[in-house]
Amino acid sequence: MSNADTTQSLTDRLTDRDTQYRIALYAVMYGLAVVFFIPYWRMFQLSVTPMSVLSQGGFNWIPPELTFAVWQRYLVEEPIIYQWAFNTLTIASITTFLVLLVDSMIAFSITRLDWPGQGAILAVIMASFMIPGYVNIIPLYTLINDLGLMNSYWAIILPFAAGPLGVFLLVQFFRDIPEELEEAARLDGFSSLRIYARIILPLSTPILTALGLFVFIWSWNQFLWPLIVLNDDALYTLPIGVVTLRDVNALAPNVIMTSLALASLPLFIVFLLFQDKLISSVQMQAGTG
User: Fold this and answer.
1) 79-288 — its CATH code?
2) In this structure, how many other beta carbons lie within 10 angstroms of the beta carbon of residue 11?
3) Does the pLDDT value for residue 105 go beyond 90?
4) What's the pTM value of the predicted model, to 2 decimals?
5) Which residues have C-beta within 8 Å of that of residue 259, sequence separation ≥ 6?
6) Scanning 10, 100, 136, 156, which has its CA 20 to 30 A from the CA of 93?
7) ABC transmembrane type-1 domain location, by residue (predicted)?
8) What pLDDT digit, counting tens, does each position of 178-214 carry?
């Protein structure tokens, strides 16, 4: 093929409307990725910049001097941040497990079992979306205090062991699962519990993963409720601990940025591990919705 034919073929491809749309789409997506990446780079850049450089002012994409002294301080010399990370991981993991279990059982009972009042119960669950979360703070605090659960993990976990969002998502997903699978299973002698555990849950792995990621991230980032029910430094979660460090080191931006980086790093790792499941869930919901 001559150079003229190659040039003509390339020109035709570039002038094609689908190709232009794809180029524009990728340009916008990569541009947005860069915009979202800049704050994280700035956070890491400040965390490794010495105070002697920060005190001079100015802006540098790459600091003229690097130091990992603050990282060493919190990762080696002051292990309290490990305790906060363990507390946050424990609370987020248990909360996520309970939400997936309870919400999936509620959704299964609404979509796959026959009992009176299903529509009314679902309507009440959906109506709870309209109630602001702050309205429940005082009743929840009173209940947790009466149960003697103050200053414990369960004071944070139990109030959020189920939620309307998870029920709504799972109800919509379970309705798209063919009923023929359930009928065939019942002919083979499967009970409702076995159908739920052996058929419905395995088929719902994508939506359960997406919901689990959402709940885990939300639980990891909780601040107001843990701040209300916890008063022991050893039981603090990472968001509360980071604010504590910020107040103590208000004049040290590198210390603040290091604590923020340490608090956000586990979530970044979780997303990288489960991003395929999240994307497949979104694609499946788009195809069935």
Assistant:
1) 1.10.3720.10
2) 10
3) yes
4) 0.79
5) 74, 81, 241, 242, 245, 246
6) 136
7) 85-274
8) 888 888 888 888 888 999 999 999 988 888 888 888 8
